[in-house]
Amino acid sequence: MENFSKGRQQLLRMALMGNALFSTISGLTLILAGQWVVRLLGLPEAVNLITLGISLLVFAVTLVVFARKKPIKVSDAWIAVLLDLAWVIGSYPLLFVVPFSTTGKWMVGIVAEVVMLFALVQWLGIRRIQKGNMVPEPGR
C-alpha cells in the first residue's frame, strides 16, 4: 500500500521540484544578471531586481522542503499552487501598468504561463493524491 501511495505522490513531487528548479534559475538570473534583465524588460536602469531574485530563491527552497516530505502534505502543496496563482494574477495587470518593452511584455507573459503550468500540474498532483485517499484498502 505504501508503494501505491508513493506512486500517487510522484506527479506532485516532480511538479514541486520542477517549479523549484525554474524558480532557482529565475532567481539566480535576477541576482547575477539583473541589469541585463532590466534592459531586456525595457525598465529604467535604477530598477533593482535583487529582492525579487532572493524571494524566488527562498520560494525554491520552500518548494524543495515541501517536495522532500514523505508523505507530501497536501496543505503545503496548496500553498505552492496559491502562490503560483498569485504570481500569474499579479503578472497580467503589470503588462498594462508598467512600460515594458515588447520583449519585456513577452517575457512577463511567458513566465506567467510557465508558472500557471506548474500550478496546474501541482493541482493535478493534489487531486491524484486525494483520489487515492478515497480508494478503500484491498481486503476491507
Beta fraction of the residues? under 5%
The domain count comes to: 1
Q: What level of helicity do the residues show?
A: over 70%
Q: End-to-end span in angstroms?
A: 13 Å
pLDDT average, as an integer? 92
Structural class: mainly alpha
The major sheet is characterized as: none
Number of helices: 5
Q: Can you tell me the overall shape?
A: elongated
Radius of gyration: 18 Å
Strand tally: 0
Low-pLDDT runs of 5+ residues are none
Brief synopsis:
With 140 residues, the protein is mainly alpha-helical. It is 82% helix and 0% strand. α1 (2-32) packs antiparallel against α5 (102-134) and α4 runs antiparallel to α5 (102-134).
Task: Give the tags.
140 residues; elongated; single chain
Secondary structure: elements and pairs:
Blueprint: H1 2-32, H2 34-41, H3 50-68, H4 74-97, H5 102-134
Helix pairs in contact: 1-3, 1-5, 4-5
What report would you give on this structure?
There is one protein chain. The chain has 140 residues and is mainly α. The chain has one domain. It is built from five helices and no strands. The chain has helices at residues 2-32, 34-41, 50-68, 74-97, 102-134. The radius of gyration is 18 Å and the shape is elongated. The two termini are 13 Å apart. The model has no long low-confidence stretch (mean pLDDT 92).
